[in-house]
């Protein structure tokens, strides 16, 4: 059985994890030039000279790379058989975290009523595309911790749907465990597709 873990992090920490996963997954497919933006470069800097120097480095590395890729005009693609086993996992983590943070931002800005909306109601950028799993691990699940869940006894009544392999939650009510259960019984005729989430984000049947 695969072990699973809950990790409670802030939005900034989630963004940092997403950036790290994106960067490493790109380096693994040969896009090594992506690291340049993260180096402690001098300021001011001659970017034309930097560009020429990275081209020289690329020409050298290309001689030792699979298919002589240079990390600029050419690189390997996600799913290439010669990539490290965790490349798809890294890419999936990046996509899951980025999509969730992007959706939360739209909700907080009032641009969509909730995250469980159709694709044509979302911006056309790739952050909002359905996630197709590339790694050999199940897609990670991420959910914002509600303000009440950070307080004593904070539970949530949620409705869940699936967006591909990704489970999407819509919060219906927040409060103590018995309050959430009573709300469900008072307002819904059945509990299909519904459950409770405890303050740690674990699912409980109604």
Mean pLDDT: 88
Number of strands: 4
Helix percent band: 25-40%
Largest sheet: 4 strands, antiparallel
Helix count from the secondary structure assignment: 4
Query: What is the H-and-E element order?
Result: HHHEEHEE
Evaluate the radius of gyration: 22 Å
Strand content: 5-15%
Number of domains: 2
Order of strands across the widest beta sheet?
2-1-3-4
Distance between the termini: 25 Å
By secondary-structure content and strand pairing, the structural class works out as alpha+beta
Poorly predicted segments: 148-152
Apparent shape? elongated
Quickly describe the structure.
The chain is α+β, with helices and mostly antiparallel strands. The chain has helices spanning 11-28, 47-62, 87-108, 177-187, and strands at residues 155-163, 166-175, 194-197, 203-204.
What does this structure look like?
By secondary structure, the protein is of the alpha+beta class. It has 2 domains: 118 residues, no CATH class; 57 residues, no CATH class. The protein is 33% helix and 12% strand. It contains 4 helices and 4 strands. A 4-stranded antiparallel β-sheet has the order 2-1-3-4. α1 packs antiparallel against α3. About 2% of the residues have low confidence.
């Amino acid at each position: 059985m695969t072990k699973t873990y809950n990790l409670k992090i802030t939005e900034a920490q989630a963004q940092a994890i997403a950036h790290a996963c994106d960067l490493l997954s790109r380096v693994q497919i040969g896009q090594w030039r992506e690291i340049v933006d993260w180096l402690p470069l001098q300021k001011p800097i001659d970017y034309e000279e930097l560009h020429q120097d990275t081209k020289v480095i690329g020409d050298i590395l290309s001689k030792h790379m699979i298919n002589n890729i240079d990390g600029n005009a050419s690189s390997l693609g996600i799913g290439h058989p010669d990539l490290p086993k965790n490349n798809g996992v890294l890419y999936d983590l990046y996509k899951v975290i980025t999509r969730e943070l992007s959706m939360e931002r739209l909700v907080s800005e009032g641009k969509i009523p909730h995250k469980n909306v159709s694709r044509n109601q979302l911006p056309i950028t790739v952050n909002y595309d359905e996630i197709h799993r590339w790694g050999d691990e199940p897609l990670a699940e991420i959910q914002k911790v509600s303000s009440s869940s950070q307080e004593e006894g904070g539970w949530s009544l949620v409705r869940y749907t699936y967006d591909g392999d990704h489970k999407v939650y819509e919060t219906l009510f927040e409060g103590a465990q018995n309050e959430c259960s009573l709300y469900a019984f008072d307002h819904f005729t059945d509990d299909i597709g519904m459950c409770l989430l405890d303050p740690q984000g674990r699912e409980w049947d109604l």
